[in-house]
Amino acid sequence: MAAATSAANAASSAVRTGTAMLLGGSRMVFRQLYDGESSTYTYLLGHTGSKKALLIDPVLEQVERDTSVLRELGLDLAFAVNTHVHADHITGSGLLKKTFPSCKSVLGRAGNEQAMADLKLGEGEVLKLDGGIELEFRSTPGHTNGCHSFVWHGGRSVFTGDTVLIRGCGRTDFQQGNPVSLYNAVWSKIFTLPEDYLLYPAHDYKGRTVSTVGEEKQFNPRLTQTQEKFVDIMKNLNLPYPKKIDASLPANLVCGLHELLPAPELPDTKKQKL
Fold first, then answer.
1. In sequence order, which residues have a C-beta less than 8 Å from that of residue 126 and are 6 or more positions away?
2. Where are the alpha helices (DSSP H) in 73-166?
3. Beta partners for 267?
4. Using an 8 Å Cβ cutoff, are 45 and 152 in contact?
5. Phi-psi region of 35 (alpha: psi -120 to 50; beta: other; left: phi over 0)
6. Rounded distance between C-alpha atoms, residue 205 and residue 168, angstroms
7. Least C-beta-crowded within 10 Å: which of 45, 91, 190, 212?
8. 221: burial class by Cβ within 10 Å (0-12, 13-18, 19+)?
9. Which DSSP string do the residues of 229-270 spell out, in sequence order?
């Protein structure tokens, strides 16, 4: 475990995978970036024709890295998108909005009523990036009530956040988590996609970068069980409390910008006895 953690931290600012492919006769850019401390993947999708890009699940501590990659590729950030309100790290959306003035923060609408975002998209709505890149929003609650997965049909891919991990899934014991909701969402919203669709999770703790819908339908040790067995597994994980949840959740409700948090209540000195 220590060796794996060390290796992950060493790669925290690395571009883990990258490719460019033809889309509508123009160049499309895709990058998978990694944060070693939280084992979070951030995904960059861009178009060299329109010079526009979006980031999925940016991490606050990696904003400088993400900004550098975008500028090196000649891309302007149009959207900072989060799959859900994270508990294990603070989003970089707010700081990215300061760096790229035209950038808009994006969340799914369902379950995120208390969270701040410039755009909130509902079930089946599509986020469109200049150049022909489109992400279909699908509500996939269970890990949290506000989780969404993004289907990129043009790239035959799905970004599952914490809903489906490679050979696993997100925990369901906090943030309105519900194992029945997660199981049903996966089988109705993700596992109904074509089996060759690439599956990109928000995290991996073993160095794996990508799976497919077909692989997870066949090999995922939790989600291949019956619903009853899955619920039993999830209720008996006995996982530790997330280390950063107390700092992450309040900050992520306001795009990761601490200055937008309510000021602490100070004592009324006039009422104090001398």
1. 134, 135, 136, 137
2. 93-99
3. none
4. yes
5. beta
6. 11
7. 212
8. exposed
9. HHHHHHHT--PPPPTTHHHHHHHHTTTT-GGGSPPPPPP-GG
Cα(15)–Cα(33) distance, integer angstroms: 5
Q: For residue 142, is it left (φ>0), alpha (ψ between -120 and 50) or beta?
A: left
Residues whose CB falls within 8 Å of the CB of residue 130, separated by 6 or more in sequence, listed in order: 47, 50, 52, 78
- Give residue for tokens 């049909």: 153
Give the integer Cα–Cα distance in Å for 116 and 212: 32
For 50, 107, 135, 137, 159, the CA distances from 122, given in Å and listed in that order, are 26, 9, 12, 7, 16
Q: What is the spatial distance between Cα 81 and Cα 164, in angstroms, rounded to a whole number?
A: 18
Q: Which two tokens stand for residue 216?
A: 């997870």
E-state strands within 86-230: 104-108, 119-121, 126-129, 133-139, 148-152, 157-161, 164-165, 168-169, 198-201, 211-212
SS3 of 163, please?
A: coil
Q: Which fold has domain 2-241?
A: Metallo-beta-lactamase; Chain A (3.60.15)
* pLDDT by position in tens, the chain (length 274): 444 444 444 444 344 444 444 444 458 999 999 999 989 999 999 999 999 999 999 999 999 999 999 999 999 999 999 998 877 668 899 999 999 999 999 999 999 888 889 999 999 999 999 999 999 999 999 999 999 999 999 999 999 999 999 999 999 987 789 999 999 999 999 999 999 999 999 999 999 999 999 999 999 999 999 999 999 999 998 877 666 656 666 666 676 665 444 443 434 434 333 3
Distances in whole angstroms, Cα of residue 226 to Cα of each of 179, 187, 193, 222: 12, 11, 20, 9
